[in-house]
C-alpha cells in the first residue's frame, strides 16, 4: 500500500508524491492504448475509411465513459475524503453506491442507444462508405457496457484505496492483451474493424477482472461487501462528478460538429486526419490528467481531515508543474508530429499532410489545457464538483461550439484546428476566477 495520508506539511516530499503521480499518469496513458492501438492497426491493415468509422462512433464511447467518470471521479473523491477523515464505513458505502448506480444507468442508456442505433449513426456523420463499420464497432462497445464502465470505475477506486501501482498493472496488462489481440485479429485473421473492437473489449475485460480480484483479495479500506446505500449518496457522487460527465458529453457533441465541419472541407480524408490528431492528443493530455489525478487522492485525504496547510503545499507543486510542462509539451508536439502521424498512415497520402499540419496547429491547446484540467479536478477533489461542472459547461458547450461554428467560416480547415486553442485561452480567465473560490 502506498500511503499518502500526510500528518503535517513537513512530511511532504515531491519524491514521495511522485510514487503516486507516476503510476497514475502511466495508468492514464495505457488507458488510451485501447483506442490508439486500434487506430494504428485499422489505419495500417484495413483502410482510412475504417479509421474514420472509429472516430464517427466515438461519441457513443464518450457517453459510456461519461457515465463511468460521473461516478469514478465524483465517488472516488468523496471516498478519499472519508478515508482521510477515518470514516471508513461511509467510504465503503460511497464505493458500493457508485458501482450500483453507474452500472444501472450505463446499461439502461446502452439499451436505448441500441434501439435507435441506425438513426444515431447517420446523425453522427456515417456515410454509405462507413455505415457498416460504424455499426459493428458501436455494437461491440454497447454490448460491452458493464466491462467498459466497471473497468474505468475500479481503476479510480483502486487508486483511492492506496494502490496506484496495482491500478497501473491492471491497465498495462489490458493494454498488452489489446495489442496482442489486435495483431492476431486484424493482421493475421483479417477481421478488420470487428477484430479491433473485439480486441479492445477483451483488453478492457482483462483490466476489469483484475479490478474485481483486487477488491476480493488485496483491498485495504474498500471491499465489495454490500453496504446500505442511500439516494442522497448517489446524488452527491453524481453532483461531484458532473464536470467529467459534462466533459465527455461535450466531447461527444463537438466530435459530431468537428466531423461534419471537416467533411465539408476534406471529406473522409479529413475525418481520418482528425482521428489521428485526436489519438495523438490523448498522449499529451494524459500527462496533465495523470498528474492532476495523481495529486487528487492525497489532496482529498488531507481535505477530508481538514488539513488545509497540506492542501496548499500540494497545490504549490501543481502550480510549478503547470508553469513549465506546457512549453515542453508543445515543443514535443510540434517536433514529433510527423513521426506520430506516420505511425498511422504513409507519408505519401493526403491524410499524412493534413494530419501533420493540423497537429501542429491543434497542439497550441496544450499551452493552456493543463491548468484548466487541474482546476476542474481540484474542485472535484474538494467535493465542489458542481463548480467544476459549471465551468466545464461554459467552456465546452458555449465557447467551443461558438468557435467551432464561427472559425471554419472565416479560416476554413485551419479554423477547425485552432478552435480548441482559442477555447482554452478564453477559459483560462474563467478558470483563474473559479480557482479563487475557496474550497
Task: Kindly describe this structure.
There is one protein chain. This protein is an all-alpha fold and 439 residues long. The protein has one domain. It has helices at residues 14-45, 48-84, 88-115, 117-124, 131-143, 145-160, 164-188, 192-217, 231-240, 242-304, 308-342, 350-362, 366-381, 385-411, 413-435. α2 (48-84) packs parallel to α6, α10 packs across α13 and α13 packs parallel to α15 (413-435). The model has no long low-confidence stretch (mean pLDDT 84).
Assembly level: single chain
Number of continuous helical runs: 15
Strand proportion: under 5%
Number of domains: 1
Instruction: Report the radius of gyration as a whole number of Å.
Output: 21 Å
Structural class: mainly alpha
Distance between the termini: 28 Å
Would you kindly provide a brief summary of this structure?
By secondary structure, the chain is an all-alpha fold.
Question: Keywords for this structure?
Answer:
439 residues; mainly alpha; 15 helices; 85% helix
Spell out the blueprint of helices and strands:
Layout: H1 14-45, H2 48-84, H3 88-115, H4 117-124, H5 131-143, H6 145-160, H7 164-188, H8 192-217, H9 231-240, H10 242-304, H11 308-342, H12 350-362, H13 366-381, H14 385-411, H15 413-435
Helix pairs in contact: 1-2, 1-7, 1-8, 1-10, 2-3, 2-5, 2-6, 2-9, 2-10, 3-6, 4-5, 5-8, 6-7, 6-8, 7-8, 10-11, 10-12, 10-13, 10-14, 11-12, 11-13, 12-15, 13-14, 13-15, 14-15
Amino acid at each position: 500500500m502506498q500511503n499518502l495520508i500526510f500528518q503535517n506539511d513537513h512530511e511532504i516530499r515531491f519524491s514521495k508524491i511522485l510514487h503516486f503521480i507516476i503510476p497514475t499518469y502511466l495508468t492514464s496513458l495505457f488507458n488510451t492504448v485501447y483506442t490508439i492501438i486500434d487506430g494504428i492497426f485499422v489505419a495500417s491493415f484495413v483502410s482510412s475509411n475504417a479509421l474514420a468509422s472509429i472516430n464517427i462512433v466515438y461519441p457513443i464511447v464518450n457517453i459510456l465513459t461519461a457515465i463511468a467518470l460521473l461516478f469514478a471521479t465524483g465517488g472516488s473523491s468523496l471516498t478519499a475524503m472519508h478515508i482521510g477523515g477515518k470514516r471508513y464505513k461511509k467510504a465503503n458505502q460511497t464505493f458500493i453506491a457508485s458501482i450500483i448506480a453507474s452500472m444501472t444507468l450505463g446499461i439502461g442508456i446502452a439499451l436505448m442507444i441500441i434501439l435507435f442505433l441506425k438513426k444515431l449513426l447517420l446523425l453522427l456523420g456515417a456515410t454509405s462508405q462507413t455505415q457498416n463499420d460504424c455499426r459493428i464497432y458501436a455494437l461491440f462497445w454497447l454490448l460491452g457496457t458493464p466491462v467498459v464502465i466497471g473497468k474505468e470505475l475500479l481503476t479510480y477506486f483502486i487508486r483511492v484505496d492506496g494502490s496506484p501501482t496495482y491500478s497501473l498493472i491492471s491497465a498495462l496488462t489490458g493494454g498488452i492483451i489489446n495489442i496482442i489481440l489486435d495483431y492476431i485479429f486484424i493482421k493475421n485473421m483479417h477481421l478488420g474493424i470487428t477484430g479491433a473492437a473485439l480486441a479492445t473489449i477483451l483488453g478492457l475485460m482483462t483490466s476489469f477482472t483484475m479490478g474485481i480480484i483486487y477488491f476480493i483479495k488485496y483491498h485495504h479500506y474498500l471491499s465489495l461487501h454490500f453496504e446500505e446505500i442511500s439516494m442522497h449518496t448517489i446524488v452527491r457522487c453524481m453532483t461531484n462528478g458532473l464536470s467529467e460527465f459534462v466533459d465527455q458529453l461535450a466531447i461527444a457533441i463537438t466530435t459530431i460538429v468537428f466531423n461534419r465541419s471537416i467533411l465539408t472541407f476534406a471529406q473522409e480524408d479529413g475525418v481520418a486526419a482528425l482521428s489521428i490528431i485526436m489519438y495523438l492528443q490523448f498522449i499529451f493530455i494524459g500527462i496533465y490528467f495523470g498528474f492532476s489525478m495523481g495529486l487528487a487522492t492525497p489532496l482529498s485525504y488531507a481535505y477530508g481531515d481538514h488539513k488545509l496547510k497540506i492542501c496548499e503545499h500540494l497545490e504549490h507543486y501543481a502550480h510549478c508543474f503547470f508553469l513549465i510542462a506546457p512549453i515542453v509539451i508543445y515543443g514535443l508536439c510540434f517536433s514529433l508530429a510527423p513521426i506520430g502521424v506516420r505511425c498511422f498512415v504513409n507519408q505519401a497520402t493526403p491524410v499524412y499532410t493534413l494530419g501533420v499540419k493540423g497537429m501542429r496547429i491543434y497542439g497550441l491547446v496544450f499551452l493552456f489545457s493543463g491548468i484548466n484540467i487541474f482546476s476542474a479536478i481540484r474542485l472535484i477533489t474538494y467535493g465542489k464538483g458542481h463548480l467544476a461542472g459549471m465551468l466545464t459547461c461554459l467552456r465546452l458547450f458555449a465557447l467551443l461550439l461558438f468557435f467551432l461554428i464561427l472559425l471554419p467560416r472565416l479560416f476554413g480547415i485551419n479554423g477547425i484546428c485552432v478552435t480548441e486553442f482559442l477555447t482554452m485561452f478564453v477559459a483560462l480567465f474563467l478558470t483563474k476566477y473559479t480557482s479563487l473560490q475557496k474550497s
